[in-house]
Amino acid sequence: MKFQWTVSQLVTQGRSQRLLRRTWRNYIARKFGWAATRVREATAAAIVLQNSFRAYQLRQVYHRWCQECRETRAAIRLEALGRGYIARTLVVPKRRQQLREQHSANVVGCWYRSMKWRHMMSFLRRTNKATMIQAAFRAHVARTRFQACKNEWAREKATQTIQCAYRCCRARRRVAFKRWLRSQGPCMGCQEAVAEVFALAYSLELCNSCSNAMGQQIQDDEGDWDTMAIEVYRSRYRHATKIAATYRGYAQRQTETQGRRLFVAARTIQCAVRVFAAGKVLRALQIEYELKVQAAVAHMKHRRKVRAVIQIQSQYRRRRDLRVAVAKRLARAAAQRQQALT
Hints:
Layout: H1 2-31, H2 33-184, H3 188-204, H4 208-220, H5 230-341
């Protein structure tokens, strides 16, 4: 109950306060109504005047802003036309000329590099073919010399075979003749003399008449000659023949080996000299090609640097001109605003 009473008291107080405020406002309005009306009318008139002046100022500012915008657009249009004319008459032809020169330089460089590559490949092919031809020629010369040596060896072997056959036939005939003579001798003394005469004829390679005459002289002057038995003579002659044949074969082999060594050494030296000369020529061509490529790359880098510098300078000039134009327009707008305010 106490809470309800408190709430009702608060509600009643609030209503009383509102009623008092409304009553006071009505009293003030009835008492000061005319003055308030005059003040309200004056305030409304002042507000209308202020709004009109502000609208006029806004219209003037808007007109000035529109005029500046029109002037700015006209200036931008004129600048665009000027830049377009300059670009069409100067920049674009120059850029096209640079692009044509660059394309032409690239085409010429490509053709030059391809020509140098073709020349180098042709030189390598010619060198390879020349090397193959030289190798084939040397192989042909070696085969020809080997065939000649083989034919010479065959001829020597055939000659030696014929000589051996001839010597064997002659030896057989001499032995047969000796046997016939020994069988025809009347006594042992005659047989010994005949054997000595046959040994002298066999060693001295004399004809039969000279051998018979020398044998007769030996028989007449038997005490002045030193004779040997036929078996000893044959043994010594056989050993001497083997030694002489062995020495001739050794000398021939040494001569052929020395000749082959000299030929192989000369061919090796010639091949080494040709390879060294070809290597020097190839290295010189490679160095020349590398120098030309480096020069072309350096020239291209220089042209790129120059083009980059020109682009940077042109961009800097355009930005500088834009800044100058913006500063001029801002200064002109500030001057016009100052003139309008004054």
